[in-house]
Design goal:
Elements: H1 2-11, H2 18-28, H3 37-43, H4 51-63, E1 67-71, E2 77-81, H5 86-89, E3 94-97, E4 103-105, H6 112-122, E5 132-135, H7 138-142
Parallel strand pairs: 3-5
Antiparallel strand pairs: 1-2, 3-4
The structure holds zinc ion (2 copies).
C-alpha cells in the first residue's frame, strides 16, 4: 500500500520527501478504516509536518484516486483508502460499519443489472455510480455493539 501511494504521487510529478513518506506510512497504516485529516495530523505532529501540508497531500491523494471521502452520521468528513484498481473504473461500492468504521469493498458490483434497466427506462447513458451500504459488521454484532 505504501508503495502504491508513493508511486501515485511520483507518477503525478510530486517529489516524495521524507515528511511526505511519513504521511504516506500513516495513511497506509489506517488499513481501510476511515480517518479524519485532523486525527492524521495529530499523529504526525512530532514529524514537524505542517497542518496545511497534511491536508493538501490528503486532497492530492484523493484527486489521484487513492482516497475517497466518506460521510457518516456524525457529520465528520473522513477519508478512506480505496481499493487498488478501483480508481481506474471509478468503482467504489462498499460496506461501511457505522460502529467501528471498517470499510469493505465489494468485489462484484451488485448494481449492474439494475443500472442497465435504469439506463433503458430513463434514456440515460450511465457513466458511474457509487454505492455505500451502511450497517454493522460481523465483529461489532458479535460484540453486542448493536446500538
Ligand atoms: Zn464494526
Ligand atoms: Zn457498482
Amino acid at each position: 500500500m505504501e508503495q502504491r501511494l508513493r508511486n501515485l504521487l511520483e507518477q503525478a510529478g510530486h517529489r516524495v520527501t521524507e515528511p511526505r513518506m511519513q504521511l504516506i506510512r500513516a495513511v497506509a497504516a489506517q488499513d481501510f478504516r476511515p480517518f479524519t485529516g485532523e486525527a492524521l495530523y495529530e499523529g504526525l505532529r512530532d514529524t514537524g509536518l505542517g497542518r496545511a501540508t497534511v491536508f493538501r497531500t490528503l486532497r492530492l491523494l484523493q484527486n489521484l484516486g487513492a482516497l475517497s471521502r466518506l460521510h457518516l452520521d456524525d457529520g465528520c468528513q473522513r477519508y478512506v483508502l480505496t481499493l487498488p484498481g478501483a480508481s481506474e473504473n471509478g468503482h467504489h461500492d462498499r460496506l461501511i460499519c457505522r460502529q467501528c468504521g471498517r470499510v469493505a469493498y465489494l468485489e462484484q458490483c451488485p448494481m449492474e443489472d439494475s443500472l442497465n434497466r435504469i439506463a433503458e427506462q430513463s434514456g440515460y447513458r450511465v457513466e458511474s455510480h457509487h454505492l455505500d451500504i451502511l450497517g454493522l459488521c460481523g465483529d461489532c454484532l458479535a460484540a453486542g455493539n448493536d446500538q
